Amino acid sequence: MQIINRSKLPPAEKSELQLGYIRLTDAAPLIVAKEQGLFAQLGLDVTLRREVSWANLRDKIAVGTLDAAQMLAPLPLATALGIGGMRADMVTGLALSLNGNAITVSAALAECLQLLGAAPEKSAASSAHALRKWLQEDSRSLTLASSHSFSCHTIQLRWWLRSAGIDPDRDLKIIVLPPEQMVDSLARGVIDGFCVGEPWNSIAVQHGIGAVQASGYQVCNNMIEKVLGVTQHWHNHHPATHLRLRIALMLACQWLAEEDNRLLAADLLARPEYLDLPVHQLRPSLSGDFQYSKHSGLIKLPHFHVFGRFQAGFPWRSTAESLLAECNKMLGRRATIEETRALVQQTYRTDLYREAARYLGMAYPEHDYLPDSAHSTAWEMAPGVELGPNERL
Amino acid sequence: MVLDDTGERAAMVEISLAAAGFKVVSVLSSASGLLHQIEQHRPDVIVIDLESPDRDVLESLTIVSHHNPTPIVMFSERDDPDFIAAAIDSGVTVYQNDALDPNLVKTVVQVAMRQFQSFNMLRQELLQTRTELEDRKLVERAKALLAKHRAIDQQNAYSLIRKLSMNSNKTIVDISRTVVATLGDMDS
């Protein structure tokens, strides 16, 4: 791994930091940075705090109990708008991961969908269309859960439903549940399905409680998932600390990009002080040997989580604009183009990403907005700037 | 409305809110059925444990406006940030009807905060007592092991532990832990 010459970096304003995360597999960059000594290498003494809800994490950031945290990609924008909870101007200069979610329905519903033509391993559209047929034939109402109102989970779930002409507001009910309650609620029949991050899909699959109908990747290839969030106020007072934090996490993401390290990461995450779960529940999504249902074979999904590849860390402003547009649509909120642009520019800080990338000698995109063109394979945007496929269902 | 999965604390909050002249319409231990409860009771203020995993659920209900004709916000923009920070530090969060008198809400928060703080203190004391008890057991075990292995009496074993503690600048509990870890293994 790259050795960082700390003397080139401006001195950190603060070295003891509290970082928040949620009990999900894609908290990996934070845990890896801690356990591989990357924070320490950058002169940071980081304590990781597992939080029980996104609301909790946001509030602790807003009042300064936490210095920084892993956040859902839309959350810094929603927090800046003060939707649903405490308001604070937020900044992100680093995306932590792409993909990582899946849509799972109960084993019983999955059987019905299969009879109606669902073949989710091959096509997420087939399972969405099967669900539409099921909704037309069955008079029972359907409830699906997402882990947060303003999350890529909700957005992906709505896109998946819409791809088959299902109206997510009229044809069924979408509720919010904490990730940890998803599998149990599915088993008890409180909900019929959910869209959530790992390992909660794999846990449902391994117990035969649910079967995956679409991976997040199938719904939208290489969609941003989690970011590193801090308040604007904190960033203004700790720019050098923030830089070191981003560098440490970028190194962790590079480490996680190596296939050989993924199983080691699963071992780290499994520990009682982190996710406190059996390692076999964390392996499927990290290794990419994924299973859609208990009795189906393993399929190779190397991009189930993307860390450190395809410019995964770059906080595209075009992505932020589309996340914000989706949130506004859900809220029935109108925003002018100028308003949206201003909020995105203030929150998604591409300049901060480039600053850290320069210290690491990494290539980075020169543009803040991704050109609107679909790619079915990995492609080179500029020399050394490789981007992943970006097709949407 | 009070939402707290720690039953004792919820009861404490309910009693003191009632004593302060507020009517607690409902005390819930989890967010299941929360929407129904909100529609039924139409609470002006919801007091919820900061560490409740159900806060995202509650916020999702406050966002979906067709369920709630009156907007429910977390604290109020009018409250001062120090007050909010203090509430959060004590573990209290509050969602309120935005049209409500902020001073009234502040009183509710203060009452809840006091109860949360005294509950946390009680829990801290309990934890302390438990740790002290465990420490004492550890020292006793170390004494017994050392006495057996060195063929000395318990009094001398304790003196030895104390000497080791002073020489190494470690606590008696730390030394006892090391003794139990090394000698305990040989024993079993």
TrEMBL record, chain A:
PANTHER family tied to this protein: ALIPHATIC SULFONATES-BINDING PROTEIN-RELATED, BLL4572 PROTEIN
The name this protein goes by in its record: Nitrate transporter
Keyword annotations from UniProtKB, A to Z: Cell inner membrane, Cell membrane, Membrane, Transport
InterPro entries registered for this protein in UniProt: NrtA/CpmA_ABC-bd_dom
Localization: Endomembrane system
